[in-house]
Amino acid sequence: MGEVDPAFVQDPEHRPKLTITEAEGIPLIDLSVLNSNDDREAIEKVVREVGSACEQWGFFQVINHGVPLEKRQKIEAVSREFFAQSLEEKRKVRREESSVCGYYDTELTKNVRDWKEVFDFTLEDPTIVPVSPDPEDNSLMHWTNKWPENPPQLREACEEYIREVEKLSLKLMGLVAQSLGLPEKRFNEYFKDQTSFTRLNHYPPCPSPHLALGVGRHKDGGAMTVLAQDDVGGLQVKRKSDGEWILVKPTPNAYIVNVGDIIQVWSNDKYESVEHRVMVNSEAERFSIPFFFNPAHYTLVKPLEELVSEQNPPKFRPYIWGKFITHRKLSNFKKLNVENLQIYHFRVQE
Ligand SMILES: O=C(O)CCC(=O)C(=O)O
Ligand SMILES: [Fe+2]
């Protein structure tokens, strides 16, 4: 048995089983009708597929999604080149406490270290966010991207790619909106001064895949995540029906889409943000690229008025997204003695 630093070791109940549960897996949705527009019937079918995937799984995959393959291949190639460099080189763009942007290899999920290294960059540059989670403190600051010198094409590949996944994410939010009986563009206003970012993930081979995780179990705090994974596999989703961890089998060039906490709140629990995690393995390294589609920092997140009624009263108290994100960032950065902030902290007691 190999040895890993105890900081990476998961509590026994959270360690992965190395035998995989084979299951049908999350729904695969073909988005080609969105490119040929105007076939209302076909679009409505896709809307229904998205709605039932959000309800049953909180996760789905999409194909024929409109992101040019060449843009995806370009960012995948620069990501490999970036992580193949020495630690010294990568640490030249090291992320600091005051920003999410740059390279980082000591992220914590629920106070246990993840077996991975990452490079984060935002869509808006600069991105405006609150300085602190303290509700009394109204001061704001900027996150600015930190581009490495090498590989030299990294910046262009990242900037081009993130605009393409943003377009796809807006289309997906349009489908989610329609599936909730709302106008297609209902959510667009929240993304005007968005705090979205993309992460390049590298999971090196791990000597103890039964003890550590690439990313520990968590829910995504933003609105929606749109993820490109390579052909290695390792992402597991907690199946709502029985709590079993189900492997998301790689589908070439597909995107994996999941409901984040904010959609759960907006939909007043109709759609749920589902727990997921990443297993590592002892032989193959793995790369993935999630895009976290997040609203403006000043967004007051609460169940949408159109979706609540006397029979279905709001299940969450309103909270400010920027305050939530700064709280989360602090806990991912250093080991805290308090639990991570979660949306259930805003749940209305029944
Ligand atoms: O690498 C993956 O497949 C998923 C990563 C993830 O869940 C996250 O970064 O939030
Ligand atoms: Fe995630």
TrEMBL record:
<dbReference type="GO" id="GO:0046872">
    <property type="term" value="F:metal ion binding"/>
</dbReference>
<protein>
    <recommendedName>
        <fullName>Fe2OG dioxygenase domain-containing protein</fullName>
    </recommendedName>
</protein>
<dbReference type="Pfam" id="PF03171">
    <property type="entry name" value="2OG-FeII_Oxy"/>
</dbReference>
<dbReference type="InterPro" id="IPR027443">
    <property type="entry name" value="IPNS-like_sf"/>
</dbReference>
<keyword id="KW-0408">Iron</keyword>
<keyword id="KW-0479">Metal-binding</keyword>
<dbReference type="Pfam" id="PF14226">
    <property type="entry name" value="DIOX_N"/>
</dbReference>
<dbReference type="GO" id="GO:0051213">
    <property type="term" value="F:dioxygenase activity"/>
</dbReference>
<keyword id="KW-0560">Oxidoreductase</keyword>
<feature type="domain" description="Fe2OG dioxygenase">
    <location>
        <begin position="194"/>
        <end position="295"/>
    </location>
</feature>
<dbReference type="InterPro" id="IPR026992">
    <property type="entry name" value="DIOX_N"/>
</dbReference>
<dbReference type="InterPro" id="IPR044861">
    <property type="entry name" value="IPNS-like_FE2OG_OXY"/>
</dbReference>
<dbReference type="InterPro" id="IPR005123">
    <property type="entry name" value="Oxoglu/Fe-dep_dioxygenase_dom"/>
</dbReference>
<comment type="similarity">
    <text>Belongs to the iron/ascorbate-dependent oxidoreductase family.</text>
</comment>
